[in-house]
């Protein structure tokens, strides 16, 4: 039996103020899967994401990536293996040019010169932003900045990419362009989203996180067409959207 690329066992977490955000989450993701994480506000989705590369660590239970435990001594390697693309690209882009932002991670690993430039350009090519390599990020559109944020993760050649609300604040064309990029990546993908049609388009499998537990998991289509499940966990499809005709 193959080792899951991501394995959470009985993960529980409480914040310092006593708020219990996760109550024993069990989740396995196999290499190459694309999984949507669905759920209402306050379900624990962001808390879960922050456990995947050690930004938060569980009060109980374990998290591992390809068999490597997410513990302090492994954090450098874990953060190379698991790349997180945050909801706001301005939380991720802080250098003077696109080139410097994308180069930041590999440069910290000691990559220099022609090899650094090759890695930067390869990542930007994947997201269609190579022509903007010397532009300041704040001169780009929101959708372009989100693609550069994805490139800052891709340049590290991660095993898993986790995206937090990737379609938020995107116009329809940018939303479609990002979907095309994501479907073309040969990487395990997890996507936290309230955009249920986007989840159906990009992720064959989904989990529903509700009140800090995995309330349901299965095919995204089956979850989105289970009216009782959707109502119980405050999930609603856009008006007029029918998963059966997608």
From TrEMBL:
Broad class of where this protein is predominantly found: membrane
The UniProt keyword set, sorted, is: ATP-binding, Cell membrane, Membrane, Nucleotide-binding, Translocase, Transport
Q: Which GO terms describe its molecular function?
A: ATP binding; ATP hydrolysis activity; ATPase-coupled transmembrane transporter activity
* Ranges for domain ABC transporter: 6-236
Q: Does the keyword ATP-binding apply?
A: yes
Per the record, the GO terms for biological process are: cobalt ion transport
Annotated membrane topology is: Peripheral membrane protein
Pfam families assigned to the protein according to its UniProt record, in alphabetical order: ABC_tran
Q: What does this protein do?
A: Part of an ABC transporter complex. Responsible for energy coupling to the transport system.
Family under the similarity heading: Belongs to the ABC transporter superfamily.
The name this protein goes by in its record: ABC transporter ATP-binding protein
């Amino acid at each position: 039996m193959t080792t899951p690329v991501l394995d959470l066992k009985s993960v529980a977490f409480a914040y310092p103020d006593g708020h219990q955000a996760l109550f024993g989450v069990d989740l396995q993701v196999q290499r190459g899967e694309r999984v949507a994480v669905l759920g209402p506000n306050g379900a624990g989705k962001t808390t879960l994401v922050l456990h995947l590369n050690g930004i938060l660590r569980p009060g109980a239970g374990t998290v591992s990536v390809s068999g490597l435990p997410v513990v302090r001594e492994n954090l450098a390697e874990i953060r190379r293996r698991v790349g997180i693309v945050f909801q706001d690209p301005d939380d991720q882009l802080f250098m003077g040019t696109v080139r410097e932002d994308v180069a930041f991670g590999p440069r910290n690993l000691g990559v220099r010169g022609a090899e650094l430039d090759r890695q930067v350009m390869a990542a930007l090519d994947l997201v269609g932003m190579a022509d903007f390599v010397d532009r300041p990020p704040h001169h780009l559109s929101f959708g372009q900045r989100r693609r550069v944020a994805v490139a800052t993760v891709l340049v590290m050649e991660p095993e898993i990419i986790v995206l937090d609300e990737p379609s938020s604040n995107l116009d329809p064309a940018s939303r479609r362009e990002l979907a095309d990029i994501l479907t073309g990546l040969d990487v395990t993908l997890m996507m936290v989203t309230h955009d249920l049609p986007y989840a159906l388009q990009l992720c064959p499998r989904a989990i529903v996180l509700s009140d800090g537990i995995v309330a349901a998991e299965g095919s995204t289509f089956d979850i989105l067409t289970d009216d009782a499940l959707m109502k119980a966990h405050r999930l609603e499809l856009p008006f007029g959207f029918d998963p059966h005709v997608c």
